[in-house]
Amino acid sequence: MFKNIAVTLDGSDNSKDALAQAVDIAKSSDAKLTLVSVVNETSYYYMGNTSTVGTSMIPTDFRSTQRKAAQDVLDNAKAYCDQHGIDVEVKVEEGIPKRVIVESYGKEKGYDLLVMGKSGVDALSRVIVGSTTAYVVRNSDTTVMVVG
């Protein structure tokens, strides 16, 4: 069965469902589980990275804010895993999520299953550049489970 599972998390309901599925699989397979959240670097271009852009609504340190939000998602997911007796590794990555997932969590890196939600919280990015999930399904060299 599966021995090394990565689950991508963005705080969406679909990613929470993906986490629940990944935990069930990890328990039944005695697999190692890695929780991953990718800070989307393209959002820096959409939102700007400084308060001098002309709006006071944009945080001065947008990258730090996003990293903290990603870490919060992973902390909540880790607490869920702890409740279910699953030891996990936690990783916050930065980059274009679909590329980071395909390049860092495939067979070559030792993962035999990727679990992800069918859609996430980044609707703007999906409209502009396409679905992360669709890209991963088309380009990953490992098994991908889409939960939705």
Automatic annotation (TrEMBL):
<dbReference type="InterPro" id="IPR014729">
    <property type="entry name" value="Rossmann-like_a/b/a_fold"/>
</dbReference>
<feature type="domain" description="UspA">
    <location>
        <begin position="1"/>
        <end position="147"/>
    </location>
</feature>
<comment type="similarity">
    <text>Belongs to the universal stress protein A family.</text>
</comment>
<dbReference type="InterPro" id="IPR006016">
    <property type="entry name" value="UspA"/>
</dbReference>
<protein>
    <recommendedName>
        <fullName>UspA domain-containing protein</fullName>
    </recommendedName>
</protein>
<dbReference type="InterPro" id="IPR006015">
    <property type="entry name" value="Universal_stress_UspA"/>
</dbReference>
<dbReference type="Pfam" id="PF00582">
    <property type="entry name" value="Usp"/>
</dbReference>
